[in-house]
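MODEL INPUT / OUTPUT PAIR
PAIR INDEX: 1
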Amino acid sequence: VAMRAAFKAIMDGKQVAVLVPTTVLAEQHYNTFKERFRSFPAEIEVLSRFKTSAEQKRVIADVKKGLVDIVIGTHRLLSMDVGYKDLGLLIVDEEHRFGVAQKEKIKMFKEMVDVLSLSATPIPRSLHMSLTGLRDLSIIETPPPGRYPITTYVMEYRDDIVDEAIRNELDRNGQVFFVHNRIEGIYRVQKRLEEMLPGVRIAVGHGKMPEGKLAAIMSDFIKGEYQLLLCTTIIESGLDMPNVNTIVVDDADKMGLAQLYQLRGRVGRSHRIAYAYLTYHPDRVLNENAQKRLNAIREFNELGAGMKIALRDLEIRGAGNILGPEQHGYIQA
């Protein structure tokens, strides 16, 4: 949908900006756009921290001169020094990952630009605005052909089950994501996994790594040089790796509903049946909201359940403040 809209805009002589939440996703979109537009004379550039400052300056200058048709980037696109010659369409991917301050900056573009926001799980405030008619809403309910629902287990963390889940995936030549969302403890978890899974090639990825190192690890993992990627929620946004069909999430009770849905959506992107293990620590008492979130993710298991999940999230967390910065919560009466 986004690519066709972008194509129409550039054919009408306008520029297109694609705003994404993470550098890894910006690179992935850049490659996808390049592939789809290769038969057309479209000039596509990417602006993210993977580029050197000299390259960034060149891209910004070309965008201002109108030499670039489509620019894909992270929050960097919202910086004051980025100007456009004739911007016609702004595409916001994974809209739920942006805060209200960033969305207000987007509104400044909006006066003369069309905006297309994409999200599998709209944040309560955005969903509420759509339901009340402040925004137009379109829903894509049909999954790509040949996809299966993801088999989801919500359970207490147990080494033997995790060990079996990982080995089953590796036996069919697949790869595994293991999500541990605390950078301080991630290397301790790596040590534990290495003891539990001798001979398995494990890579670690998180947002505080130097850009070059993170990019190299991601590309080696995609090439199949590692079998298991131990990472933070850096993989949450839109990454497409069809060979990864098992995900284990540690401390799932500490994550939001949309976040869990997004993480689960990283697997099952091919014709294989995929598995998601959402685990919490056995000695922890779950609070009521955590229980509701885990029940919802277990209940809404079918493909394209993002809208139902977002509605349940709206119910659990409240609609937020249309005039203020809160993206969820209830009005104090």
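PAIR INDEX: 2
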Amino acid sequence: AAGRLRDDDKIAVYSANYETLVEFSLNAIDYDSVNTWSNYVRGVLHFLKEAGVKLQGADVALHGNVPIGSGLSSSAAIEMAVGFLFQNLIGFEMSGPDLALIGQKAENKFVGVNTGIMDQFVSRLAERDHALFLDCRTLEYENVPLDTSSLKIIVCDTMKRRGLVGSEYDTRRSQCEEAARLLSQWIPNVRALRDVSPEAFEEHKTKLPEVVRKRAEHVIYENERVLASRDLLKAGNMAKFGLLMNASHDSARDLYEVSCPELEAMVEVSREAPGSLCGRMAGAGFGGCTVSLVREAYVEQFVETVKSGYEQKIGVVPALYVCTAADGASVVESNK
């Protein structure tokens, strides 16, 4: 995102991805049913204004290289880029976590998509060559070393756009809330599934309806995998970290039931490809992308093998992106 202030209350925002210019007044920030991409901008400005920030008109240009609709949080990237741009243009004080919450509000309440806080949080607060560990209850966070000098993060796009995510997210959330409610009858101080230990769950799981039990089992053991992953990354044990990534995907497929044939095909070929340490769905499932950690010396072989293997299975040529762990929203000074 790039921008400059104006001397009026008008926002003029151009999307290079959509090759479209949209204009609106800060005094009338309404939902746009035509240029829906602009609602991420509108929502952020609406909630900044609601938070007491004195806004000013601006000319803004946007361009993103995060694939749209692929489950890689392009919306959160826009929200944090726009919020951080205005923070720097106007000079108001706001912490990274608070700006992330503004982005989440924009997505939940203005755009109308129910999401958690992770996407906005990492888009704002990520650190180069680190993963971000986040406690979603307290918003305490820690940047954990993720050395990508000898390993690369390769994102594999199935080209299957996600169709069920909204309704299924709501369903899974209600099932997890029901699991927590039921378990709180037998386990003290349970507000959410994070408050249930694996030992307590094993003691009481047979009392839960089958589907609710499966959802709870995924979440409770996924929390354990996250904590173990943080320790493994700190220790630099990427091989065991990769095994936990695989276990995470398998649990999301079997217990949380958010996979699809395209994701399974991609995971299968990516796990078997040269240099691969893991293959796991990225995002909410039902399509989109997988993510693998690949030894740098094998990156070209991995890409070729996955592209041909996936095309043979599904009949579609996937898009692959070789990535490193980069900083979140930050100021880039132009040399011109």
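PAIR 2 NOTE: The chain has a mean pLDDT of 95.
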